[in-house]
Specification:
Length: 196
C-alpha cells in the first residue's frame, strides 16, 4: 500500500513540475539577456536592443494592460492589417508614464527588425527599438494584484539599495502567462532600469 502511495506521489510531483515548466515558458520566445548577477528571485540582466510593438493606454493598471493587449494581439495575429501572423512572445510588459498613462508592449520575435515587421494598420500600435540596457528584476508567482506587485517592487528596490544600484527609470511589470494559468504557476516580474 505505501509503495503505491509513494509512486502516486512521485507521479503527482512530476505532473506539477511539468505543468510549471509549460506555464512559465509556454514554448514561446523570450527576450535574450545576459545574467550579470543571480541571487535567488533577484537578477541583474543586460538586455540587447529589443524591437517591440507598443500602445499607450490610460486607467488603472489591470484595466490598462487589458486595453493594451487587444490592439497588440490584433496586430500580431493580422486581424487589422495585411500579411502573415507574428508569433506570440513572452512577457507582455507594462510601464507607467506620467499622467496616468501606461505603455503596454509585446516584444517582437528576434527574426524581425523594424524594417522587416509589417506596418500597423492604424496609429494605435507603434513599432519601436528599445536601446540595450541593464535591468534589475525580481521574479514571483501568483495573480499579479496591485498589492502583490507593490510588495515585490519594494523588495527589488531594497535589494538594489543594498548593492548600490541606482534606478534609472520607472519600473516595468512583466507578465509571462495567459489569464487561465493558475496563480501558483504564473511567472511575473518587476524590472527596474539600472544607472550605469
Amino acid at each position: 500500500m505505501w509503495k503505491l502511495v509513494w509512486i502516486l506521489g512521485g507521479v503527482a510531483v512530476l505532473v506539477v513540475a511539468g505543468c510549471a515548466m509549460l506555464a512559465t515558458s509556454g514554448g514561446v520566445e523570450q527576450p535574450p539577456h545576459d545574467s550579470v548577477v543571480l541571487d535567488g528571485d533577484f537578477e541583474l540582466r543586460d538586455y540587447p536592443e529589443l524591437t517591440v510593438a507598443e500602445v499607450t493606454t490610460t486607467g488603472e493598471r489591470r484595466e490598462a494592460v487589458g486595453a493594451g493587449f487587444r490592439p497588440l494581439a490584433g496586430y500580431i495575429f493580422a486581424k487589422e492589417r495585411a500579411g502573415d501572423k507574428i508569433a506570440m512572445t513572452a512577457p507582455v510588459t507594462q510601464t507607467q508614464q506620467g499622467g496616468g498613462e501606461w505603455v503596454v508592449r509585446f516584444i517582437m520575435p528576434s527574426e524581425y527588425t523594424l524594417e522587416t515587421l509589417p506596418r500597423p494598420a492604424g496609429s494605435t500600435v507603434r513599432l519601436q527599438a528599445l536601446p540595450a540596457r541593464r535591468m534589475a528584476s525580481v521574479k514571483f508567482s501568483g495573480v499579479a494584484t496591485d498589492a502583490l506587485i507593490a510588495t515585490q517592487e519594494a523588495r527589488l528596490l531594497d535589494w538594489m539599495r543594498a548593492r548600490d544600484l541606482a534606478p534609472a527609470g520607472t519600473p516595468t511589470y512583466a507578465y509571462y502567462n495567459d489569464p487561465f494559468t493558475p496563480g501558483f504557476l504564473r511567472r511575473n516580474e518587476v524590472l527596474v532600469p539600472v544607472a550605469q
